Amino acid sequence: MTISPARIHLIAAARPNFMKVAPLWHALSAAPDFAPVLIHTGQHYDANMSDAIFADLRLPAPDHHLGVGSGSHAEQTGRVMIAYEKVAMAERPDWLIVVGDVNSTAACTLAAAKLGVPTVHLEAGLRSRDRAMPEELNRLVTDVLADVLWTPSPDADDNLLAEGIPAERITRVGNIMMDSFELVRPAIAAADEPGRLGVAVGGYGVVTLHRPSNVDDPAQLARLVDALLAAQRRLPLVFPVHPRTAQRLAAGGHDVRLRDAGVILAEPAPYIRFMSLVMNAAAVITDSGGIQEETTYLGIPCLTLRENTERPITISEGTSRLVNAGTLIAALETALGQPRSERKRPDLWDGCTAARCLDDLRIRMSGKARAAA
């Protein structure tokens, strides 16, 4: 008797999701026992944040595009639940895999749970302990409802166990972001984004800002811009600007201030060009979660403009340091004054996470089949 391959729904919603989904899609597609179905919720709809990144990561056009677009957290979450439920009911998957911590992650998990679709959360167990962060609420909801929790690090395992999650639902698979980097490393190495922007390799810093706590409060944004202007006097900065951040900067006249000081305000870059920029930087200033991981993998100093991080391993074993507007310059001076040395990467951050995910899924599917028999 021929056994049909397991239909796996893969949810992609926002820029960080695309990098996490790509290695899984490639691994699932190459395996005869799986049939991946790629679903783009449309939470990020800017071409540089979606279409171009799909092309960089050699992802096909999505099988389904839900076209959710922007809106409040409730609007996005509700629209994704309604749209994904229709897809799951019409084309019931054997498994759903969600990644990260965006609104679409929690929404699809909730819809699947109500339909009885087994769900896996990749990058489970991360905690900032800050419920003012929308992403923290998405993590908590997703991890409670998901059937299988794939974690990137020991602290994530500990968080889940402390919250009462049974150990048998948890498998540490490592960090999928490293798989994405290795997937296209030759293209990243060949790209010359610093040259395109007119900056010297190793002679500039990269800035990314997008979190509401940093960009939506005019006073906080002004403080950060002042800090960036001071940093620019120490190290030329390249700032690929998130669309929401661009609106906030323009509203306060800060874009003019930054340009006049020599900061390069660039469009959001596709994955290969952006990682070419990061890979050749002297330091990175960011409030992103994923970039803390990528800089740790590459050994590049990362100054994280946040009060907390859900990725503490990037501090204890990596290159990230939590800073604020007042401490940024001193931290930058310290980072630039230290010789770059080879750092031990966290365990299982090795580019082989997707393979471990498939191995675990096969074990769980065979166990479920035995239980049913």
Give the overall shape, derived from the CA principal axes: globular
Q: Indicate the proportion of strand residues.
A: 5-15%
Low-confidence stretches: none
CATH topology of the largest domain: Rossmann fold
State the end-to-end CA separation.
16 Å
Which structural category fits the helices and strands? alpha/beta
Which percent bin holds the helix content?
A: 40-55%
CATH class of the largest domain: Alpha Beta
Q: Mean pLDDT across all residues, rounded? A: 93
- CATH homologous superfamily identity of the largest domain: Glycogen Phosphorylase B
Helix tally equals 18
Total number of beta strands = 13
The count of domains is 2
Radius of gyration (CA) equals 20 Å
Oligomer, anyone? single chain
| CATH-level-2 architecture of the largest domain | 3-Layer(aba) Sandwich
Give a short account of the largest sheet.
7 strands, parallel
> Strand order within the widest sheet?
3-2-1-4-5-6-7
